[in-house]
Amino acid sequence: MSKELVFGHKNPDTDAIVAAKAYAYLQSKLGYDVEAVALGEPNMETNFVLNHFNEPTPRVVKTVANEVDAVMLVDHNEPQQSADDIADVTVTHVVDHHRIAGFNTAAPLYYTAQPVGCTSTILTNMFAANEVEIPAQLAGLMLSAIISDTLLLQSPTTTDKDREAVKALAEIADVDYQSYGIEMLKAGTNLAAKSDAELVAADAKSFTMAGKNVRIDQINTVDLNDVISREAGIKQAMADESAKEGYDLFLVLATNVLDSNSELFVVGEPKAVVEKAFNTTLKDDRASLPGVVSRKKQVVPPLQTAFEG
Amino acid sequence: MSKELVFGHKNPDTDAIVAAKAYAYLQSKLGYDVEAVALGEPNMETNFVLNHFNEPTPRVVKTVANEVDAVMLVDHNEPQQSADDIADVTVTHVVDHHRIAGFNTAAPLYYTAQPVGCTSTILTNMFAANEVEIPAQLAGLMLSAIISDTLLLQSPTTTDKDREAVKALAEIADVDYQSYGIEMLKAGTNLAAKSDAELVAADAKSFTMAGKNVRIDQINTVDLNDVISREAGIKQAMADESAKEGYDLFLVLATNVLDSNSELFVVGEPKAVVEKAFNTTLKDDRASLPGVVSRKKQVVPPLQTAFEG
Asked: Which positions are tagged coiled coil (chains A, B) (predicted)?
């Protein structure tokens, strides 16, 4: 069996990096020749996690067809979120917790998706189903990914499976997940260290909706004023990126990870669709979205529906 | 939780009917309100199976949005193989063993795909993972589906998981699967009972390849001469269907289920792509394909590749 690369989405968050490592570990135990890589540098939160559990940073690649014929995807499936040359390789396995969009294969494959809060939750259960033990260090990483994706089990994406996985992983890793989780989330939200351009790029993902090129970024913070005070600069960075990359619509969702409220900045068109999606009125291209913390569950589906309606 | 319908593809084969029944049974045990239905009348083989195990024929529907908001798909995902109004409902679950193509959702879902010979094989393992017992009658149906899809474990789509599932199901159903399997396959190949139009429609599926509307039918037989002797009538029926439904290219694969050889009839264009896909030369729009028995593994992928190349 020839070697395959395992990776999460571009602009990797903690789950994208960790799920690749976890799935590569599981698949190697099941006899596959695999290497976990990343489609970008780890963010501040992920660096905190990797340091905390003394885990090396994965190798960063931009293209994959120059190395392998086949790959395994975690935490994404949409081609525009994947390697630039994803169309040139065969996807043999996917483990994901997102919608399926624009993902097409020529042949049957392994695809495991569940509407849970985090890919690492699905992987926790796949280790159990395959009777492979999770090492303590890897359990710590997977625990971190679930805390990150579910904002310490507070996001509406959180399911009972995520809660069960966090408990099981915290026990294996011997970590107090509440205190560790707050420390980790705070480590990931040091906004002062980032430029406006970095802020709007760090966790941004691209979507195609009704033929429009839609970019959605999320900025986590422990104080929304840290983002609102930079509104002008952030919107300028959104406009610059849109002009450069050809985005029709750019949304930045600033989320307070401690109280689960968000502020939305909008650049581009159609703004009427955004207002319809969130049943709100934009004032100076901005709106408060109380209780909105999940891009996947509370932003993408209503926006998609509004675009189609 | 509101009711959901569970169904396989149009032109249902034994797996499409049985997997819907099996998945509906499993999901009902897990607390879902579901009903297994079919997108067409059972074929001769499936009728033999349903009679043999004293199982009622499922209700046949053409549309689903008039009844439910959400559905679960088995044994298919491509929209053109699904209910006519599949775009108007939410797909919450998929269990399948085919390529993924043209399947898009607005929200995350449960998706379980494995490159094995039969959906019922995946379901056999899902019963085990959920610790739900398979009743003897249902085991007989699932066993029949695997025998049907893998041509009694002879098709190149057959995996070790299919072999293991057949053994486990045969034990539960208390069936000698070899002798039962031959009896079942023969029951499904009584070609004399079908008109030419019925023959080219019975197991036909639609595919979109490089923008072309491609129709591929498979006729199973225990003697290829039963099909070859009707070549002129079958090709006329293919041409009639193509004109009526707007197919660009129509392939009929006649397969001897006992010795695993096929004869291919081709109507429409581009024929050069067909010749390239199977590395053959058509003579009077016909070619022998020795060893080819699987549409999914030996026809669709090379044709897709040839279209793209």
From this structure: none
How far is CA B183 from its chain centroid? 19
The ranges of chain B annotated as CATH 3.10.310.20 are 196-308
Q: Kindly determine whether residue A110 and residue B110, on different chains, have CB atoms separated by under 8 Å.
A: no
At B1 the pLDDT is 67
- Judge if the upstream peptide bond of residue A135 is cis by omega within 30 degrees of 0: no
Contact flag B108-A114 (C-beta cutoff 8 Å) = yes
- Closest chain A residue to the Cα of B97, Cα to Cα: A108
Instruction: For B159-215, give the DSSP string.
Output: -HHHHHHHHHHHHHHT--HHHHHHHHHHHTT-GGGS-HHHHHHTT-EEEEETTEEEE
The C-alpha atoms of residue B251 and residue B254 are separated, in whole angstroms, by: 10
Residues of chain A with CATH 3.90.1640.10: 4-189
Give the number of residues written for chain B.
309
Number of neighbours of residue A240 by Cβ within 10 angstroms = 14
Query: What are the residues whose beta carbons fall under 8 Å from the beta carbon of A197, sequence distance 6 or more?
Result: A237, A240, A241
Give the pLDDT means over successive 10-residue stretches in chain B (309 positions).
94 97 98 98 95 97 97 98 97 98 95 98 96 98 97 93 98 97 89 92 93 95 92 97 97 91 97 97 96 93 93
B66–A contact, CB cutoff 8 A: no
SS3 at position A131? coil
Give the domain A196-308 fold. Answer: Diaminopimelate Epimerase; Chain A, domain 1 (3.10.310)
B306 forms beta bridges with none
Contact between chains at B105 and A101 (C-beta distance less than 8 A): yes
Q: What is the phi/psi pair of residue A195, to 5°? A: -75, 165
Mutation pick from A100, A131, A299 vs chain B, by most beta carbons of B within 10 Å, is A100
A108 and B296 in contact by Cβ < 8 A?
Answer: yes
Contact A143, A175 (CB under 8 A): yes
Could you report how far apart the first and last alpha carbons of chain B are, in Å?
Answer: 47
Residue-wise DSSP of B113-149: E--SS-HHHHHHHHHHHTT-PPPHHHHHHHHHHHHHH
Q: Which residue of A has its CA nearest to B99?
A: A108
pLDDT of residue A1: 67
- Interface check for A186 against chain B (CB to CB < 8 A): the answer is no
Helices and strands (DSSP H and E) totals, chain A: 11, 11
Query: What's the rounded Cα separation, in Å, for the pair B60 and B38?
Result: 5
ipTM, interface predicted TM-score of the complex: 0.84
Q: Do A107 and B113 touch (CB under 8 A)?
A: no
Q: Sheet containing A286-289: which strands, arranged edge to edge? A: A205-209, A212-221, A249-256, A261-268, A286-289
- Which residue among A99, A103, A113 places its CB closest to the CB of B106? A99
Architecture of domain B4-189: Alpha-Beta Complex (3.90)
